[in-house]
Task: inverse folding
């Protein structure tokens, strides 16, 4: 039972991190309908920048977090301004452009920092809390707490503020939004900035808490959050969070309980198997959504 | 007021009826002859080029370009014609490689069997993936291809009894049809080995090109382009979205699998590492650089990307910031190549979305404008210019 609880705790912590990454995808998807695969690039680059700022340049960790977020937010705006806004090819080619940018980034990151894992000394403090036989590290608690805070901010902005309403308006109908005095370009740019900020935060957390160090596989990890996103339902941010938690849990249980005969790559393939089953049974995702359609 | 269809009113006018067949006949004859000429030149190049290249490095570049051309001709049917983006093409290639190794190496079956066998297995796998992909559209299809990649990696590396896991599977395949052995091709007194295999690959490129352009010309191809243009309108016009998309997936997966089989024959070894996301992205680079939705685009793109990769391998070590061991602060040649291919993809999509093949049509348009034929009305030349 205690193994089960332990797996549940680490699964939830991984799930919250997935949710944070998924939210970065959602915020750009919602207002621009571009599936930004470079979100994984934000996570990867922020992970390495956290190493560079905190370990190599001895910047206090709190500032490191903010610096990484700011840098990624800026990078998001630059990408939108320099490439995405100048494209005429539509959403599909925008997706491929973001994939292309990701292919450019990973070798550049490997060239700058080499392929070795860059350990970041535990900035969260190594203390652990013991609750009924289950060991919870403070890092996990931070991940859950910060993710919850970021999610709360996201929902507040997206549902209540005028910026959030403008984003949703642009997402549903650009022409109508413009008629209401909303400037779509500003809104799109802001959502790229928001995607970058979220990706930056997620990257720092992924490289310090869960994975242990900045490493090239961070982008793979980030793309893994897409499974939770679509399982929950693309149209619903709540669904994306719940789907991410589900994926985190399922993956941890698979690591703990799946028979060895299924092979070492099984836990990383499992979320995608769940994804395919969900798509076949309930194509709108478990919590509903738009944009997806039964054939 | 009755509305007469335009075509009907034209066909009853006597002078038009008399002139039209002659004009049409002449135009068709002209384009027909130039098309025959083009095909003849293409076939001649395919036969002559492998047998005249002596550099073994460039011969292998040509062979690998041919293999990626086959994959991309299939991808072109899926993405260029039917408008379905796939990042999962590498998985179909992998399925082909392992199937060929199983049929041709473990069971020692002859070439026609392993070649057609992989095509059939590939088509079945594509047709199985198709219905899942039907559930989502547009950019969301990326999810399904990423899922396909992850599951493919799992199957290739962990189904050890079939794939031999991460150690890899040897693939010594028989390459003869009847008396002709392509791996030891005898012409006169000379024996071509690598060149023979290259020739075989490019002959299959031609077959795939022929199949794809027939798909394009047929009812299925028109249905695919309609689906790409507007799914709702295509569906309203009586096109079955399911059948069209699934057949696009089946065709593209079958071609990718055949390419995988040839890859196994060329490298004589299959390992799971060669079928990942970056391989799939390379195929997309080839397609977009060559020109998505054009007939010769895949071949132009495959040759261009192959030459680019080899060029970087040759030139790379002498460039600054390049080191063989890939230590901190320097690129390896492989990393440089990946970054350059990514930049090419971004650049093409942002600045020349119709690819290199479009440059060809630009040249053709200029030539047509320079010498207007006697039978071509001004309106017709305008139309010819607007044609993609």
Result:
């Amino acid at each position: 039972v205690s193994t089960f609880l332990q797996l549940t705790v680490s699964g939830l912590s991984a799930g919250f991190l997935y949710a944070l990454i998924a939210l970065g995808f959602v915020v750009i998807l919602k207002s621009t309908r571009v599936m930004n695969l470079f979100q994984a690039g934000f996570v990867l680059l922020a992970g390495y920048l956290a190493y560079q700022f905190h370990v190599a340049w001895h910047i206090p960790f709190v500032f490191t977090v903010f610096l990484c977020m700011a840098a990624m937010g800026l990078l998001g705006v630059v990408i939108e301004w320099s490439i995405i806004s100048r494209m005429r090819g539509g959403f599909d080619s925008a997706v491929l452009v973001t994939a292309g940018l990701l292919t450019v980034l990973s070798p550049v990151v490997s060239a700058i920092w080499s392929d070795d894992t860059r350990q970041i000394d535990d900035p969260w403090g190594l203390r652990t809390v013991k609750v009924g036989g289950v060991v919870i590290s403070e890092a996990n608690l931070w991940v859950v707490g910060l993710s919850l805070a970021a999610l709360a901010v996201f929902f507040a902005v997206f549902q209540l503020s005028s910026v959030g309403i403008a984003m949703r308006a642009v997402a549903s109908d650009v022409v109508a939004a413009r008629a209401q005095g909303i400037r779509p370009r500003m809104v799109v740019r802001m959502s790229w900035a928001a995607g970058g900020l979220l990706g930056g935060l997620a990257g720092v957390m992924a490289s310090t808490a869960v994975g242990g160090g900045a490493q090239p596989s961070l982008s793979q990890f980030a793309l893994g959050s897409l499974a939770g996103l679509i399982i929950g339902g693309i149209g619903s941010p709540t669904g994306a969070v719940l789907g991410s938690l589900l994926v985190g849990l399922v993956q941890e249980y698979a690591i703990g309980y799946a028979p060895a005969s299924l092979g070492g790559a099984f836990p990383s393939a499992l979320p995608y198997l769940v994804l395919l089953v969900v798509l076949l049974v309930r194509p709108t995702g478990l919590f509903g959504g738009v944009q997806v359609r039964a054939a | 007021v009755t509305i007469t269809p335009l075509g009907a009113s034209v066909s009853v006018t006597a002078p038009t009826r008399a002139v039209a067949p002659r004009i049409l006949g002449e135009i068709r004859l002209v384009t027909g002859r130039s098309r025959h000429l083009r095909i003849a030149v293409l076939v001649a190049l395919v036969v002559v080029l492998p047998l005249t290249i002596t550099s073994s490095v460039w011969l292998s570049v040509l062979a690998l370009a041919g293999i990626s051309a086959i994959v991309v001709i299939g991808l072109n049917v899926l993405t260029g014609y039917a408008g379905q983006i796939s990042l999962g093409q590498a998985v179909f290639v992998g399925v082909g490689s392992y199937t060929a190794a199983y049929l041709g190496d473990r069971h020692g079956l002859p070439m026609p069997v392993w070649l057609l066998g992989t095509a059939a297995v590939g088509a079945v796998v594509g047709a199985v993936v198709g219905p899942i992909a039907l559930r989502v559209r547009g950019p969301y299809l990326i999810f399904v291809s990423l899922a396909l990649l992850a599951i493919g990696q799992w199957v290739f590396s962990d189904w050890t009894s079939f794939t031999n896991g991460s150690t890899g599977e040897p693939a010594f395949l028989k390459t003869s049809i009847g008396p002709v052995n392509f791996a030891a091709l005898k012409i006169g007194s000379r024996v071509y080995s690598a060149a023979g295999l290259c020739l075989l690959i490019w002959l299959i490129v031609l077959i795939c090109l022929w199949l794809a352009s027939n798909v394009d010309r047929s009812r299925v191809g028109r249905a695919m382009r309609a689906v790409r243009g507007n799914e709702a309108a295509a569906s309203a016009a009586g096109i079955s979205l399911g059948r069209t998309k699934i057949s696009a997936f089946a065709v593209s997966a079958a071609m990718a699998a055949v390419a995988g089989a040839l890859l196994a024959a060329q490298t004589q070894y299959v390992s799971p590492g060669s079928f990942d996301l970056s391989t799939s992205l390379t195929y997309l680079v080839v397609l977009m650089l060559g020109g998505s939705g054009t007939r010769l685009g895949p071949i132009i793109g495959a040759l261009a990307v192959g030459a680019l990769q080899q060029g970087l391998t040759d030139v790379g070590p002498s460039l600054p910031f390049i080191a063989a061991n890939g230590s901190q602060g320097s690129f390896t040649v492989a990393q440089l190549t990946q970054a350059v291919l990514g930049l090419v993809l971004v650049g093409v999509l942002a600045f020349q979305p119709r690819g290199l093949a479009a440059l060809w049509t630009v040249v053709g348009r200029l030539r047509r404008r320079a010498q207007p034929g006697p039978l071509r009305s001004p309106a017709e030349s305008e139309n010819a210019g607007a044609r993609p």
